Amino acid sequence: MKLNKTLTALAVSASFGLSAQAFAGGTVAGTDITNTVTLGYTVSSTAQTPVESASGFKVDQKVDMTFTSDTATASSVPGEVVTLAYTLTNTGNKATAYVLALTNNGNADHSPQAVTFYPTATDAANNTNALANNKVSALAVDASTTVYAKTTITNNANIGNGDTIEMLATATALDPSDTDGSNLLAQDIADDKNANLTTEYVIFAEAASVNNLKYTGAITAQTDRNIVTAEFTDPADATAVPKLAIKIINDVVCENGLTDASTNDYSQGGAEVGTCPDVAAANQAAYRPKAIPTSMAQFTYSAENTGAVTANAVVFSEQLPAEYAIDSLANATLAIDAANQTLTTVTDAPDAVNEVRYDDTTGTITIYVGDVAKDEVITITFTAIVE
User: Fold this and answer.
1) Contacts of 288 (CB under 8 A, 6+ apart)
2) Continuous H helices in 176-307
3) What is the separation, in whole angstroms, between the first and last Cα of the chain?
4) pLDDT tens-digit series, residues 60-72
């Protein structure tokens, strides 16, 4: 006898199972999502045992974060110690550790110096509790932390008044096994998720930032500093450095008994200060001193502070080359904006305004000028005798 069964009703239902808390970054990485479908039916109006099927997969890690500078653009002087604040937020779907760095913008002249990261502004001020290995420990999903980079503004010779320094702070995701900030997190580019549904993979999803392309596992924030400093230039040419002018003002032909105490200037001929006493009478008015042994050179140095601020503790020094008598330095003068200053000779290193030292053992002259305000011009003269 042939049995004939008729399927009179068929119903399919599906359910989805997961156990995870909702976050802005989405379902937490590592969560197992299970899909269960049920096939229900009847035979001759009699319900039959439903058929169930289940399948699932593991949620992968989406590495995503934001990193912002909390420090507005401000003015700094080269060599100034500053503290820069940054806020890092984990917008991914798994707690992640990061390593921090503060670098230049690709131009080595902008490189910050002696960088240390701290967890609080107070720690930065007191140099306490620095972040070991510049590392932020595992930051929870949706959590934010503010870090403080204490650094010294570059004093590179190529950076001057009016320049803008660009510093780049970068946070890079670390592998969970990292212990010293060097083991960076790697993403699983080529792995086939559909062939390994229960494996948790890593993928980078952060946005592009400053000089970082997107999806690199790193994010960058930029902080700028406008350099304001004193800057000395040639009073006759603000684009040039100050010059040391040399003039031969006397020699032993002009003045036979020439010593470093002489203040006579015969460089313009007799018409300026009288005739050279020891030159033949016919040549006295026309003779110009020559750079011969035992001639006197006068040095003039002029510099203008064309920067934006006062230059403090300005010190001028010159060490004579070997061709000069090292004990012949004399006749120093200092003028600030054409106002002559009274110099006091000292025997140790000058450390007060308008002090001058002639070091006869090294052939060095040192003048402590002191503060030079914006737009002020200093003019220094002194003499020495050629051997």
Assistant:
1) 248, 266, 267, 269
2) 270-273
3) 138
4) 999 999 999 999 9
**Alpha-carbon span 125 to 116, nearest angstrom:** 11
Q: How many angstroms separate the CA atoms of 255 and 244, rounded? A: 25
* Nearest alpha carbon to residue 335 among 312, 301, 310, 363: 301
CATH class entry, domain 63-227: mainly beta
pLDDT at 24: 66
Structure tokens given for 108: 């080595």
Every domain of the chain with CATH number 2.60.40.10 lies at 63-227
Output the pTM of the full model. 0.76
Rounded to whole angstroms, the Cα distance separating 350 from 353 reads 8
- 3-class secondary-structure state, position 180: coil
Asked whether the beta carbons of 109 and 158 are under 8 A apart, the reply is: yes
Q: What is the dihedral of CA 303, 304, 306, 308, to 10 degrees?
A: 100
Name the CA dihedral angle for 179, 180, 183, 185, rounded to a multiple of 10 degrees. 70
Q: What dihedral angle (degrees, nearest 10) is formed by the CA atoms of 210, 213, 214, 217? A: -90
Sheet holding 311-319, edge to edge: 311-319, 364-372, 355-359, 344-345
